Amino acid sequence: MSHTITIANQKGGVGKTTTTINLATGLAAADKRVLIIDFDPQANASTGLGLTKQKRVMNIYGILVGHYTVSQALVKTLIPGLSIIPSAIDLLGAEIELVDMKERESCLKEIIAPYKSMFDYILIDCPPSMGLLTLNAMVASDSVLIPLQCEYYALEGLSYLLGSIQKIKKNFNQKLDLFGVILTMFDRRSSLCQMVAEDVKKFLGDKVFQTAVPRNTKVSEAPSHGKPVLIYDLKCPGSKAYMAIARELLTRDANRIQAA
Ligand SMILES: Nc1ncnc2c1ncn2[C@@H]1O[C@H](COP(=O)(O)OP(=O)(O)O)[C@@H](O)[C@H]1O
Ligand SMILES: [Mg+2]
Fold first, then answer.
1. pLDDT surpassing 80 at residue 260
2. Is the CB of 83 under 6 A from ligand 1?
């Protein structure tokens, strides 16, 4: 059964794109068929996977405005089993153009519906805002995964995001669920980091993934080489964490399906 997951947090720089790329790579390494939809106009997931400008000519914006289809814009990455629909800066305009459309919140859902059965996992990398793009991603998804950086205002941001998910569930997508929270750029030596992590766990219990992603230079270097860190340096702590997170996701997903 295909599972579509929105990777969201209205805050920028918390590890959404890094998590999307590396979780997708980990799932593909486990023989899953995976699609990333780069839904951020900044197109960091596309460049982080080494897509040249030429490979980004057909992108999610062109699909949204009806210039071509998903199958025309789909690009295979260097990782077997992992494809991506690239993004482009034009997507910025979509936030405004979609406003006048009928059923503007379900454009992405309609677009990907015929392709869902081709993939085990579809991961949607969102921009750092709760605008129309993120709304479209959540309406098109079964669940939401939140990368969270353990810093001072993290819990307030998290409450706001959970409130938004509840509103979207109520008004547009009854099946939408919080799949989990992944702690990113975790620094074990920082007492603030530890404290925030404890608070998040008290608040959300086992929704918090057991594996946290440590702050690791290799993780930040990998995108400039156009590779997931799992390919750039498989043995570094960041890669080990993302492999463990992919395994955890598969286990959680199996339990989720059993419970449904
Ligand atoms: N575990 C990590 N260790 C070190 N740097 C990281 C880690 N995760 C992300 N980064 C870096 O932090 C920055 C923001 O991450 P990114 O995934 O782009 O966040 P977002 O998509 O939420 O804006 C990037 O430069 C990225 O390379
Ligand atoms: Mg990003």
1. no
2. no
Tell me what percent of the chain is helix, strand and coil, each rounded to the nearest 5: 50, 15, 35
Residue 98, amino acid: L
pLDDT at residue number 100: 83
Contact assessment for residue 34 and residue 82, using Cβ atoms and an 8 Å cutoff:
yes
Our count of domains for the chain comes to: 1
- pLDDT confidence tier of residue 152, bands split at 50, 70 and 90: confident
Is the pLDDT assigned to residue 256 strictly greater than 90?
Answer: no
Indicate the helix (H) or strand (E) that contains 4: strand 3-7
Q: How far is CA 82 from CA 153, 156, 183, in A?
A: 34, 34, 24
Of all protein residues, the one whose alpha carbon is nearest to atom 13 of ligand 1 is 13
The domain in which residue 45 lies consists of: 3-259
Mean pLDDT computed over 115-142: 97
Can you tell me which atom of ligand 1 is nearest the CA of 11? Answer: 22
User: Confidence class of residue 182 from pLDDT cuts 50, 70 and 90?
Assistant: very high
Q: Which ligand is nearest to the CA of 127?
A: 2
Centroid of ligand 1 to alpha carbon of 259 (angstroms): 33
69: domain CATH number is 3.40.50.300
